[in-house]
C-alpha cells in the first residue's frame, strides 16, 4: 500500500497502542486517578492513533477495491479496533471536560452534570450517592 500523504506520526502512537490508562495499578488493584497532564497526553496519543487507523482503513479499502477483492471480515475487524480506540478517546475527553468544568459526572437517570460533593441531581432529584455506590458495585 502506498503511504504517500500519510499523516505524520510521532512514534508514540504505536508504542502506546497496547498500553491503557487502566494498566497502571497500585498494590490494592485499583488504578490511581490520572492527572490532567496524563489525560491530555493520552488524549493526544489516542487522537493521533485514531487518525492513523482511519487513514489506514481507508487505504486498505481502496487497495482492496482496485483489486476487486474486498474482504469484509478484514475491514470489519479493523473498524472494530478503531471503534475501541475512538471510544477510549471519547471517555478521556469526557474526563478532561469534567475536570475543566468542575463536574464529577453525569446523572444516570437524566444525564445532567453534577458537581463534586453533590448529594442529589439538580435536575431530577436522583440521589448521587446511590449512583456512585451502584457504579462501584458493578465495576467489581
Give the structure's gist in a few sentences:
With 140 residues, the protein is mainly α. 56% of the residues lie in helices and 5% in strands.
Structure, explained:
- This protein is mostly helical.
- The chain contains four helices and two strands.
- The protein has a two-stranded antiparallel ribbon.
- It is elongated, with a radius of gyration of 20 Å.
- Residues 10-28 have low confidence and may be disordered.
Key words describing this protein structure:
2 strands; mainly alpha; 140 residues; two-stranded antiparallel ribbon; elongated; 2 domains
The biggest beta sheet is recorded as:
2 strands, antiparallel
Count of discrete structural domains? 2
User: Approximately how much beta-strand content do the residues carry?
Assistant: 5-15%
Give the number of DSSP strands. Answer: 2
Q: Which regions are unreliable across 5 or more consecutive residues at pLDDT < 50? A: 10-28
User: What structural class results from the helix and strand content?
Assistant: mainly alpha
What is the mean predicted local confidence, pLDDT?
Answer: 75
- Please estimate the helix content: 55-70%
Q: Outline, from the CA principal axes?
A: elongated
- Give helix and strand order, one letter per element, not per position: HHHEEH
Q: Tell me the span between the first and last alpha carbons.
A: 44 Å
- Sheet with the most strands: spatial strand order: 1-2
Q: What Rg is obtained from the alpha carbons, in whole angstroms?
A: 20 Å
- SS summary, helix count: 4
Amino acid at each position: 500500500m502506498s503511504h504517500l500523504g500519510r499523516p505524520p506520526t510521532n512514534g508514540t502512537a504505536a508504542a502506546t497502542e497496547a498500553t491503557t490508562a487502566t494498566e497502571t495499578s497500585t498494590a490494592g488493584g485499583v488504578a490511581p486517578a490520572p492527572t490532567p497532564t496524563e489525560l491530555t497526553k493520552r488524549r493526544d496519543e489516542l487522537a493521533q492513533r485514531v487518525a492513523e487507523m482511519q487513514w489506514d482503513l481507508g487505504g486498505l479499502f481502496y487497495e482492496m477495491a482496485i483489486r476487486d477483492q474486498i474482504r469484509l471480515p478484514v475491514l470489519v475487524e479493523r473498524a472494530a479496533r478503531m471503534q475501541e480506540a475512538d471510544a477510549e478517546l471519547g471517555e478521556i475527553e469526557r474526563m478532561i471536560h469534567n475536570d475543566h468544568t468542575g463536574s464529577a459526572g453525569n446523572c444516570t437517570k437524566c444525564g445532567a452534570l453534577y458537581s463534586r460533593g453533590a448529594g442529589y441531581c439538580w435536575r431530577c432529584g436522583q440521589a448521587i450517592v446511590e449512583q456512585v455506590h451502584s457504579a462501584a458495585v458493578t465495576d467489581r
